[in-house]
Sequence to fold (209 residues):
Amino acid sequence: MSISCGELRAVLTRALSTLPTHAEELRELDAALGDGDLGITVQAGSKAVVAALAALPETAAVNEMLLAAGKAFSTANPSTFAALIGGGLLAAAKTMVGKTEVGKDEALAIGRAVAARIVERGKSQVGDKTVLDALVPSLDVLDASQGDAQALLAKMIDTARERIEATSGLQSQKGRAAWVQERSIGHPDPGATAYLRFLEALRVALSGD
Fold:
């Protein structure tokens, strides 16, 4: 099942409009491992993307939405997470040129492009206790699964949650979280948690509740 550009814009707007409610949770998680700015990054970035999507013409294609979202998120707050996610969205836009609908294959291509750019720019990999530990396994599940959007998102959410719990016991290897060394053990990764909250918001937005 695919959704049109108009439906995609509406779903993303609904999902991103709820993400700022998690700002305090993400701030607290990030404060335990870094400088505590992730809550601000997600809050400011989500609002900026919603505004950027609203400013696009009704005829905007998928790649144009991703370009607008990437630019808005990366510049809304000067942080490493904003740069990585924003850069990932800009990379994903190149894979969606000419696309006017998004289904499983397109969603997978977008996710893989975002992950690849994070690996490249962040010099990180799965196991370093970053957003990749939730993002990559959830994309693998999407790739291997069948079903409607709600069923696929449910599997991705379960996988992301499981991987966040599993990697909480690891020592962070990248970013400011790596500076605290063994004190990072026992804390869930904030970026991975932000991704999980986005998936959860996306599922609710798609349901129309």
Notes: The mean pLDDT is 89. The first strand starts at residue 3 and ends at 4. Strands lie at 3-4, 101-102.
